[in-house]
């Protein structure tokens, strides 16, 4: 799977990979919701189709944002983990959450209010570092 980039613009190049409606959702699910198996992704509220999920996971792996490994006790099950490059998207995920809370709440009245969102608002940088640290710790103990 070779990606053809539209132009030499760094923003457009990033969007060529991450601008699809599913890519950041999958990264968010891994980072915040702790999802790591194909089954967990397919059973999520976002309801991504299996063929699309498979394609997006392959793309994320190709660009070094996630890695796929065999489950230690079930070789048929694959585990997906964020790489450091994938984790480096954490500030973008947090910024999107804050932007959405500030600008889309009136359009989406069912948008949840959470302790995490309040923590992001009160100290964004600390929240980002803690989120990455927690992810790394869970990965190390898995």
Structural class: mainly alpha
CATH architecture: Orthogonal Bundle
Helix content: 55-70%
Number of helical segments with 4 or more residues: 8
Structure description:
The protein has eight helices and two strands; from the N terminus they run ααααββαααα. The protein is mostly helical. It has a single domain, classed as Arc Repressor Mutant, subunit A (Orthogonal Bundle), CATH 1.10.10. It has a two-stranded antiparallel sheet. A hairpin with a 7-residue loop joins strand 1 (66-70) and strand 2 (78-82). The chain is globular, with a radius of gyration of 16 Å. The chain starts with 9 loop residues before the first helix and ends with a helix. The mean pLDDT is 92.
Summarize the structure.
Helices cover 56% and strands 7% of the residues. It has eight helices and two strands.
List the helices and strands and how they pair.
Layout (H helix, E strand, L loop, with lengths): L9 H9 L4 H9 L6 H5 L7 H13 L3 E5 L7 E5 L1 H4 L2 H14 L11 H8 L1 H18 L1
Antiparallel strand pairs: 1-2
Helix pairs in contact: 7-8
Descriptors:
142 residues, Arc Repressor Mutant, subunit A, two-stranded antiparallel sheet, 8 helices, 56% helix, globular
């Amino acid at each position: 799977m070779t990606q053809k980039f539209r132009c030499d613009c760094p923003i457009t190049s990033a969007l060529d990979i991450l601008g699809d409606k599913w890519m950041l959702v999958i990264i968010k699910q891994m980072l915040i919701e702790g999802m790591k198996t194909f089954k967990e992704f397919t059973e999520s509220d976002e309801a991504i189709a299996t063929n699309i999920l498979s394609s997006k996971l392959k793309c994320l792996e190709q660009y070094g944002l996630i890695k796929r490994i065999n489950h230690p006790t079930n070789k048929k099950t694959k585990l997906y983990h964020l790489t450091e490059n994938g984790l480096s998207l954490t500030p973008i995920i947090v910024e999107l959450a804050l932007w959405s809370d500030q600008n889309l709440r009136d359009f989406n009245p069912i948008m949840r209010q959470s302790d995490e969102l309040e923590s992001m608002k009160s100290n964004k940088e600390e929240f980002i570092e803690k989120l990455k640290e927690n992810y790394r710790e869970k990965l190390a103990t898995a």
